[in-house]
């Protein structure tokens, strides 16, 4: 018997067969919960999404497996820790040594946990059309900045600068990518660099995610940007 629909007439009401997806983060928010459940309803999917935190990541991932949870979003500080707890790690996660998504293949008895990094995959798709001879600037040195940098590097962008207020993480990311490091953007934001002179492709700014210090009166927002820079002098 097909479960009855919700009042909106799209997603079935909760029932014994409803699939569950979760997120694991140090500070879970309502953003992902609202976003996923809204789309489940719009698409008529018999799924439920709920955000969690945990003090025992191994037990939490064990619960994903034991309870047949279909998928799990992974945020800081668990992105590296979960790598030892899954059955398979896709190249996207290996590229930056960090996981943001776990999919549980329920066709395998006991489940089969496959880890990936969708940030890395998404950025690679976004930059597919860009001129590889352009230099790039990455602002920030957090988890998303790592994904952006690795995606750019692996797509052939070999000239760039990491701008980060944290010199330790900024220099470490720059060294990993083979890019330069700078503590401030400074003159690197010249307006004439917003368009590639070779490809003529308008790049502008792309919001990603890395920490910026904000006044306490404003909500903390995580973001970073990358855009083309002039090539290094030869």
UniProtKB/TrEMBL annotation:
Any Pfam family: Shikimate_dh_N
UniProt xrefs under InterPro entries: Aminoacid_DH-like_N_sf, NAD(P)-bd_dom_sf, Shikimate_DH-bd_N, Shikimate_DH_fam
Region Disordered, residue ranges: 192-234
Cellular compartments per GO CC: cytosol
Positions with biased composition (Polar residues): 192-210
Coiled-coil intervals: none
Gene Ontology annotations of biological process type: chorismate biosynthetic process; shikimate metabolic process
A single MF term (Gene Ontology): shikimate 3-dehydrogenase (NADP+) activity
Domain of life: Bacteria
Domain Shikimate dehydrogenase substrate binding N-terminal, first and last residues per copy: 34-102
PANTHER family cross-referenced by the UniProt entry: SHIKIMATE DEHYDROGENASE (PTHR21089), SHIKIMATE DEHYDROGENASE-LIKE PROTEIN HI_0607 (PTHR21089:SF9)
Protein's name in the database: Shikimate 5-dehydrogenase
């Amino acid at each position: 018997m097909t479960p009855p629909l919700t009042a909106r007439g799209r997603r079935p009401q909760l029932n014994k067969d409803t699939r569950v997806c979760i997120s694991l983060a140090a500070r879970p928010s309502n953003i992902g919960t609202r976003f996923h459940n809204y789309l489940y309803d719009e698409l008529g999917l018999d799924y439920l999404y709920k955000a969690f935190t945990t003090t025992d990541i191994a037990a939490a991932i064990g619960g994903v497996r034991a309870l047949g949870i279909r998928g799990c979003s992974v945020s800081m500080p668990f992105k590296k820790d979960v790598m030892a707890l899954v059955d398979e790690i896709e190249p996207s996660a290996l590229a930056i040594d960090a996981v943001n998504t776990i999919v549980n293949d329920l066709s395998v008895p006991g489940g089969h946990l496959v880890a990936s990094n969708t940030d890395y995959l998404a950025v690679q798709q976004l930059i597919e059309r860009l001129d590889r001879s352009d230099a790039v600037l990455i602002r920030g040195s957090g988890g998303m900045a790592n994904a952006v940098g690795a995606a750019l590097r692996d797509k052939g962008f070999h000239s760039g600068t990491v701008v980060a207020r944290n010199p330790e993480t900024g220099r470490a990311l720059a060294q990993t990518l083979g890019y330069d490091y700078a503590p401030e953007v400074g003159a690197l934001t010249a307006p004439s660099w917003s368009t590639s002179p070779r490809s003529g492709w308008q790049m502008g700014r792309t919001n990603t995610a890395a920490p910026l210090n904000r006044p306490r009166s404003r909500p903390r927002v995580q973001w970073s940007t990358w855009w083309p820079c002039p090539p290094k002098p030869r």
